[in-house]
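Researcher: I'd like a structural prediction for the single chain below. Treat it as a standalone chain; there are no partners to consider.
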Amino acid sequence: MILKPICDILDQFYPDPPIPLDFSSPFTLLIAVVLSAQCTDKRVNAVTPALWAHGTSPADIADLPVQTLTDIIRPCGLSTRKADAIHNISKILMQKYHGEVPSDRTALEALPGVGRKTANVLLSHVFNIPAFPVDTHVMRLAKRWNWSNGNSPEAVERDLCSLFPPELWIKRHLQMILFGRNYCTARGHDNSKCPACRLIIQKVPQIPA
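Model: Treating it as a single chain, here is the predicted structure.
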């Protein structure tokens, strides 16, 4: 396993990695992450201003007709399912949590449309609770770099958490997302041109012809 040289590259390329989604509160981040399922963060960031024009609180969004929600978020895909989830999340937050996003994993994962990855994003980026969200980019890179052989996001998460101290989980998660988008892509990837993957190639002994 090559760890430190790849981490050095991540630190060089993304010393202070930004959060890709635009948000102004725990609630707006929660909704943005729900919208990001099978959708790019760039598109979510383009769509959410129209949604927040109606209000940025659970009370505001709960008052919107579901069809209005559906029409606004249609470019994000799965709009009917996501609109129902957003509407129900907003109502639950008002009814059970006084309009606040809970900081408890179990409570977060009980919300409609919220799984472990979304809960990890909220815990780490909003509540400063160490967590390592695993999306498709993180999973792809972890396996390419032999940092994990897990076949599920949960297994990959466990492996990555064992490699790094908790204070680095948020940073490494963001670095891997950005590096995966820009250098270690899913399609058209060339190990010899990837700054990280070529380090692995160089370590593989060549078998004489």
